[in-house]
């Protein structure tokens, strides 16, 4: 048996209580190993996998405004995030056996022991089971306080002895104690007005999904009709198809009838400008499509690969995603899930629907200043499809058929994946990927690495895109370089994160947005670190984006990162084997790194809005950019 005593302290009181508990547990017998762990070093993954025979005791202090001490800040925010993450099963801690001792001063009134109480409630909410009553002590009552500590330590020792002596006793004890923990929780909810109880949350899902950012379709359907317990049971019983793995029949996928887009989600997405197709797909017009239609510049894909933004259709065949990235500008309103559990529309219908809806949006630009008849005609003749709009395109069970259909229509495909589905085919290391992409899969790092391995085998163009989030991943050069050596991509796009004027769910601020110069510096060091097979090739300063390319694309000293699209389509039609080197085209000089035009196509006209200009004062500059963004959003 392994017991962990996890403590958080600011001034030492709590640590000494934890040490006292460790000593008392040590006297129970030599069949238990007891760890004393500062909460700062707690491994949350390990907590999620903890077995019932290995209980955890938390001894936690309370600090300013009832919040955690410094050492517990990260754990506190992780736990809260996890507790309210709508993708996480409410039973995910059902194997955890725990008890909390809170240290605080009742003189602080309603914030007395607030943090330990929150931890206690969140662990219970996720089905963690108290093996003995959680207790909240008042250091203001010094005489009584010591007695309360001793009583709690005694009951911890007793419960551990009970576990050691036999499982039956444990379950009855647990049943009794979980009831009393529910009563305690009621008490706590009264104390903390901001706290949303699980019942309220259920109501929110039922009554106010339109406004809710927590738009989990699975939960929505289940909670609406049967309530939490039954929903859980249904989830467990579900035989929903994950994704169409090799060998899974099409009819198995076709037999699922639940639709991904519910009426409320439809309203919500339409409000955001998505044109929805069928039951799980959508198109939306990108700002660069509009810009290039008006001859005002294209996106970085134009500079790097020759993709014409005004002929590019941004599409997704799956609005659902398996990550909740901090940089996601969709503000997490899209559904999230690790499995395909919805009705799957036919690929022909999605491709045709997307073309029709995209053209209807282009049509609205007829006569708009700057849109010439020639550009308009080109815009109607879609040449590219960027599968990077929102969601995870490869979750869609017929993604291969979908991409083939695009190619048949002479539409090139550019597919962006978050590398969580290696069976079908953002950060440098495991910790960083977890913080930034906030994946739902517990084996997210293994999945990510398998995808990287798969990419190394591809003969068509492969690209790594690194989104630099200052403070999160900008310091991880070595790990990135390693991933690149492993995945051997043709290209590495490095892009500074975009601030989307939103500070809620994803908690990014302007201080996380790197300057273009910082991105350039990062890229220079990264390129030198990878190997001498790679070099910086292109720059698109407008979007803080840089391209590092494999040197095989530098033919006779000249970069060939662009694509010869007619050649690509004729190779596809030929049915013969070909590789990415068979359809290369010369990169124009203006797109090459080091050119004064910094990636802006000289055939277009740059239109400067009355925007913030850098005047040497970073803080003032950031404040101006923020004001610009907020003004634009109004
Ligand atoms: C700056 C400060 C703020 C505090 N705020 C609270 C509070 O909001 N609620 C509470 O219950 N206790 C509060 N306390 C009391 C502490 O929890 C108490 O002093 C405790 O014994 C500290 O434990 P430690 O020595 O392990 O850090 C506060 C203490 C300090 C010094």
Automatic annotation (TrEMBL):
PROSITE patterns referenced in this protein's UniProt entry, alphabetically: FLAVODOXIN, FLAVODOXIN_LIKE
Sorted UniProt keywords: 4Fe-4S, Iron, Iron-sulfur, Lyase, Metal-binding, Nucleotide-binding, S-adenosyl-L-methionine, tRNA processing
Recorded catalytic activity of this chain's protein: N(1)-methylguanosine(37) in tRNA(Phe) + pyruvate + S-adenosyl-L-methionine = 4-demethylwyosine(37) in tRNA(Phe) + 5'-deoxyadenosine + L-methionine + CO2 + H2O
UniProt superkingdom: Eukaryota
Boundaries of every Flavodoxin-like domain copy: 3-157
GO terms under biological process: wybutosine biosynthetic process
EC numbers for this chain: 4.1.3.44
Stated name of the protein: tRNA 4-demethylwyosine synthase (AdoMet-dependent)
Source species of the chain: Physocladia obscura
Lineage: Eukaryota, Fungi, Fungi incertae sedis, Chytridiomycota, Chytridiomycota incertae sedis
Gene: TYW1
């Amino acid at each position: 048996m392994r017991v962990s005593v996890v403590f958080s302290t600011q001034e030492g009181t709590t640590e000494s209580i934890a040490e006292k508990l460790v000593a008392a547990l040590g006297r129970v017998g030599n069949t238990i190993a007891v760890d004393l762990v500062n909460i700062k070093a707690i491994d949350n993954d390990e907590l999620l996998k903890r077995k019932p025979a290995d209980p955890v005791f938390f001894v936690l202090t309370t600090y300013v405004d009832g919040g955690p001490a410094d050492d517990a800040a990260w754990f506190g925010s992780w736990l809260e995030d996890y507790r309210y993450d709508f993708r996480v099963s409410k039973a995910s801690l059902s194997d955890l056996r725990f008890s909390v001792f809170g240290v605080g001063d009742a003189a602080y009134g309603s914030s007395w022991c607030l943090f330990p109480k929150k931890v206690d409630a969140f662990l219970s909410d996720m089905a963690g089971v108290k093996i003995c009553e959680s207790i909240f002590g008042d250091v203001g009552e010094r005489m009584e306080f010591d007695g309360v500590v001793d009583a709690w330590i005694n009951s911890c020792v007793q419960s551990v002895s009970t576990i050691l002596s036999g499982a039956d006793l444990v379950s009855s004890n647990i049943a009794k104690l979980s009831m009393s923990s529910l009563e305690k929780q009621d008490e706590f909810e009264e104390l903390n007005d901001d706290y949303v109880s699980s019942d309220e949350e259920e109501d929110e899902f039922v009554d106010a999904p339109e406004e809710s950012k927590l738009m989990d379709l699975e939960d929505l359907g289940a909670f609406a009709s049967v309530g939490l317990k039954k929903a859980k049971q249904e989830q467990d019983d579900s035989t929903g198809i994950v994704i169409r793995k090799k060998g899974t029949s099409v009819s198995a996928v076709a037999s699922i009838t639940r639709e991904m887009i519910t009426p409320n989600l439809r309203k919500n997405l339409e409000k955001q400008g998505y044109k929805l197709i069928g039951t799980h797909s959508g198109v939306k017009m990108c700002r660069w499509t509009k810009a290039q239609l008006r001859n005002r510049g294209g996106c970085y894909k134009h500079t790097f690969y020759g993709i014409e933004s005004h002929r590019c259709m941004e599409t997704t065949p799956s609005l659902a995603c398996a990550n909740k990235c901090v940089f996601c500008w969709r503000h997490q309103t899209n559904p999230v899930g690790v499995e395909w559990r919805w009705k799957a529309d036919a690929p022909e219908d999605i491709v045709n629907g997307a073309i029709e809806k995209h053209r209807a949006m282009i049509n609205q630009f007829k006569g708009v200043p700057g849109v010439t008849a020639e550009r308009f005609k080109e815009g109607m003749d879609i040449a590219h499809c960027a599968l990077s709009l929102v969601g995870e395109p490869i979750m869609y069970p017929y993604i291969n058929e979908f991409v083939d259909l695009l190619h048949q229509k002479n539409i090139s495909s550019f597919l962006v994946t978050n590398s969580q589905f290696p069976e079908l085919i953002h950060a440098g290391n495991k910790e960083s990927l977890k913080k930034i992409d906030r994946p739902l899969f517990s084996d997210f790092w293994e999945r990510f690495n398998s995808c990287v391995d798969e990419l190394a085998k591809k003969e068509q163009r492969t690209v790594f895109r690194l989104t630099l989030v200052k403070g999160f991943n900008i310091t991880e050069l070595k790990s990135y370089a390693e991933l690149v050596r492993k995945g051997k991509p043709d290209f590495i796009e490095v892009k500074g994160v975009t601030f989307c004027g939103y500070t809620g769910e994803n908690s990014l601020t302007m201080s996380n947005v790197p300057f273009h110069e910082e991105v350039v510096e990062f890229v220079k060091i990264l390129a030198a670190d990878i190997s001498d097979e790679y070099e910086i090739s292109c720059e698109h300063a407008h979007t803080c984006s840089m391209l590092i390319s494999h040197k095989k694309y530098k033919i006779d000293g000249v970069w060939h990162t662009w694509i010869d699209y007619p050649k690509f389509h004729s190779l596809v039609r030929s049915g013969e084997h070909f590789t990415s080197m068979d359809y290369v085209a010369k990169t124009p000089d203006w797109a090459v790194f080091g050119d004064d035009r910094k990636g802006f196509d000289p055939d277009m006209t740059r239109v400067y809005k009355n925007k913030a200009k850098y005047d040497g004062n970073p803080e003032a500059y950031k404040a101006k950019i923020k004001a610009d963004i907020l003004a634009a959003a109004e």
